[in-house]
Amino acid sequence: MLKRNNISVLNKVNGSVNIEADKDLFVRVLSNIFSNTAKYGKLNGELIISSEIKQRADQQKTITIKFFNDGDPIPQEKHEAIFKKYTQANSTSPTSYH
User: Beta strands 46-55 and 61-69: pairing type?
Assistant: First the structure.
């Protein structure tokens, strides 16, 4: 899907990272990010993946994974809504959920 639009994926994650997460949900999120990059990213564009690990006061670590593509940004008024279940920034997308 990314190859079709000649989109490069740049991995800027430092080293190896192990996380505890719901595997199915994590794969779904990644799949959605790659799909959206293919749909809305620029031809010959890029998707950059980076991470940041922070040590908390309770000695636990948190990781922030960041994704950036050079497609058009999501409008500010859609930012809050896109994190609600089954909400899309572009409501004209033909995606359906079963």
Answer: antiparallel
Mean pLDDT of the chain: 82
For residue range 33-58, list pLDDT tens digits in order.
898 888 888 889 999 999 888 888 89
Q: Compute the chain's Rg from CA coordinates.
A: 15
Rounded alpha-carbon distances, angstroms, from residue 51 to 28, 39, 80, 87, 97: 18, 24, 22, 25, 30
CB atoms within 10 A of CB 37: 23
Among 67, 73, 69, 66, smallest CA distance to 90 is for 73
Say what the pTM is: 0.67
Q: Which of 63, 84, 67 is nearest to 20 (CA)?
A: 63
Q: What is the dihedral of CA 52, 5, 39, 82, to 10 degrees?
A: 10
